[in-house]
Amino acid sequence: MRVLIVGGGGREHALAWKLTQDQPSIEIIAAPGNPGLATLGRCVAMSADDILGIVALAMQEKPNLVVIGPEAPLAAGLADALRTVGIPVFGPSRGAARIESSKAFAKSLMREAGVPTARAIRCIDAPAAKRAARDFGAPVVIKASGLAAGKGVIVCSTIAEADAAIDSMLRDDTFGAAGREVLVEEFMEGEELSLFAITDGTTVLPMLAAQDHKRLLDGDMGPNTGGMGAYAPVSLSSDALVADAVERVFLPTLDALRAAGAPFSGLLYAGLMLTAQGPKVVEFNCRFGDPETEAILPLLESSLLEPLLAVANGSGLAGQALKWSSNHAVTTVVATAGYPDSPRKGSRIELPPREPNVHVFHAGTAFNAAGELVTAGGRVFAVTAIAPSLAEAQRESARAAGAIDFEGKQLRRDIGWRELERSAGATRD
After folding, report:
1. Residues 6 or more apart in contact with residue 55 via CB below 8 angstroms
2. Any idea which of 29-33, 84-88, 145-149 has the lowest mean pLDDT?
3. Do 7 and 74 sit in the same domain of this protein?
4. How many CB atoms lie within 10 A of CB 155?
5. What is the mean pLDDT of the chain?
6. Which structural domain range is residue 238 located in?
7. Are the beta carbons of 144 and 152 closer than 8 angstroms?
8. Are 166 and 145 in contact (CB under 8 A)?
């Protein structure tokens, strides 16, 4: 079995790790990969966005499966290009990937399909966006419609903040093409949940829900990031809630995409806000989320390879099921100095010895000319600890992340704090 993994972050390292657990004899090829992935397979120095290069590599290597990690190559049509040359691929078409690459498209699709979500107004000029913000009132959410690496959503507590966010996107071009169309969206009150589902376009196989921590600092303070950690499971995610999300969110969305001529197969990720009126969609992603993947996969006791192959080969997911550990996982992201605005690269890294029940997934690392491991991205590691309780998993994850040494490292030590507060409250009651 040969698998080509497209991407080079913590998500891709976690996917490769899980696939090698499922089948130890598997041959992993990663493009571009990273030093962590290189311990599991062979890395090819090629950008994940190089569509023609990836297709040529796949035709040369003839993998049994290609798994596309990042959203940008999916939005650029990599899955379509691979299918055209007969390569089995796990990932949606370019048309279906619009569910993530265009928030305006996703919002329109949800509205037509009756999927619960916040009210929003699409705007392409600043005066109209500012009028929309005043119509909603503060707090209000300003979203870049395109791909912005998880940083294009600004929750504004005042109209002045909304005006600044709108000017940043539509006048100052802060997010480039991604921010030239924005959504002005009503603020939803509640807790957010990340729910992944493997799907062949008809059957939905929901995974274990996780909760992401977007803010840079403890207590959910500081600027928004691509994600500073995640934990799973989440007690708010009951079997009934997941079943409701499948019926009211996933299935209608898949039906609508199919009706639009863009059937979706791959990993559909719903960011859900648990409101007083029930779960509502914050946004969709068309791929495994990061860092939630690093928290979820170590808890998956059944095979990941089997459902991915079933989707890629077109045999379907009927009869497939996922089995989960009863343990808890906490993933702590270790970020470089200056993240998220000006991440510092090239800092030499010292890694502690490996530990049982701790997984150190490389997210932004490289080797320099001297062969030293150095920082090469904003989020450098995703450190996942597995333990019988969330408190222990949080403690071990933060300790192991803190043991990684490089200049100016940043990490949170409170991943899962809401869940711990809930459990403390339940104990008091």
Report:
1. 78, 81, 82, 85, 87
2. 145-149
3. yes
4. 17
5. 95
6. 191-313
7. yes
8. no
Are 215 and 276 found together in one domain?
yes
Calculate the CA dihedral of residues 42, 48, 52, 56 and round it to 10 degrees. Answer: 10
Each residue's pLDDT tens digit, 248-305: 999 999 999 999 999 999 999 999 999 998 899 999 999 999 999 999 999 999 999 9
Are 68 and 90 spatial neighbours (Cβ–Cβ below 8 Å)?
yes
Q: Supply the pLDDT for residue 49.
A: 96
DSSP letters of 255-313? HHHHHTT----EEEEEEEEEETTEEEEEEEESS--TTHHHHHGGGB-S-SHHHHHHHHH
CATH of the domain at 56: 3.40.50.20
- Distance from C-alpha of 91 to C-alpha of 80, rounded to nearest angstrom: 9
State the burial class of residue 314 (Cβ atoms within 10 Å of its Cβ: 0-12, 13-18, 19+). Answer: exposed
Q: What CATH number is given to the structural domain containing 225? A: 3.30.470.20
> In total, how many domains does the chain have?
4
Tokens, residue 326? 């009863």
Of the candidates 313, 340, 361, which is a domain's last residue? 313
**279 upstream amide cis, omega within 30 of 0:** no
- Given a contact cutoff of 8 angstroms between Cβ atoms, the answer to whether 386 and 397 are in contact is no
